[in-house]
Amino acid sequence: EDQVTQSPEALRLQEGESSSLNCSYTVSGLRGLFWYRQDPGKGPEFLFTLYSAGEEKEKERLKATLTKKESFLHITAPKPEDSATYLCAVQGGATNKLIFGTGTLLAVQP
Amino acid sequence: ETGVTQTPRHLVMGMTNKKSLKCEQHLGHNAMYWYKQSAKKPLELMFVYNFKEQTENNSVPSRFSPECPNSSHLFLHLHTLQPEDSALYLCASSQDSATNEKLFFGSGTQLSVL
């Protein structure tokens, strides 16, 4: 069964304390892995798409990487404004459906 | 306006009421989606429309009825809902649902069923 698991469920960091969020997936024939950011009271906002193992993408303090089993979202020297829920989703399998994880709630304290 | 706009932002309704959620996208996209987001659960796809045609109904109860009059507008008609239907309902759009593209989401309608 196609599945996406995100960890940790919640993460609290001090400003400037770098860390990584994990997205593990099982899907036959990955066609894309997506990262979204969701602020309270808002819909998810697209961050990155990764298509194949070894691919990396960066945007400001965020860097997403992909292997055949998981993706990491690395946050370097985070700031309080990086606080949000980060969602991972994979697309592929026989139905090509987009499957979301439950997200990681990140809190960055000043 | 730009992006995806949803109204109302908040809705409280009784189990016997009938209400509608509205979504409008200003991105020139051809695909529109309804998702349900409940606490501690993954986003749950409800319906997909591509070029105004419904391409997916993810086993959604008939008390939820979608309508897509054109590629820019999407409605979700609600009737005789249950308390467990309380959730954040998100509308999204993309260029084409047949391709693996990013979704653009609205801010959602927070629905409470009493």
Structure, explained:
The complex is a heterodimer of chains A (110) and B (114). With 110 residues, chain A is mainly beta. In chain A, 0% of the residues lie in helices and 61% in strands. In chain A, the strands form 2 sheets. In chain A, strands 2, 4, 5, 9, 10 and 11 form a 6-stranded mixed sheet that branches. Chain B is mostly beta strands and 114 residues long. Chains A and B meet through strand 4, strand 5, strand 9 and strand 10 of A and strand 10 of B.
User: What percentage of the residues of chain A does DSSP assign to strands (E)?
Assistant: over 45%
The secondary-structure element order of chain A is: EEEEEEEEEEE
- The whole-angstrom Rg of chain B is 13 Å
The oligomeric status of these chains comes to heterodimer
Question: Tally of extended strands of chain A?
Answer: 11
Mean pLDDT of chain A: 96
Beta-strand share of residues of chain B: over 45%
Q: What series of H and E elements makes up the topology of chain B? A: EEEEEEEEEEE
Largest sheet of chain A: 6 strands, mixed
What's the helical proportion of residues of chain A? under 10%
The biggest sheet of chain B, with number of strands, parallel, antiparallel or mixed sense and barrel status, is: 7 strands, mixed
Q: Can you count the helices of chain B?
A: 0
- What's the count of strands of chain B? 11
Number of helices of chain A: 0
Residue stretches of chain A low in confidence (pLDDT < 50, at least 5 long) are none
Overall mean pLDDT of chain B stands at: 94
Radius of gyration of chain A: 13 Å
State the shape of chain B.
Answer: globular
Quick synopsis:
The complex is a heterodimer of chains A (110) and B (114). By secondary structure, chain A is mainly beta.
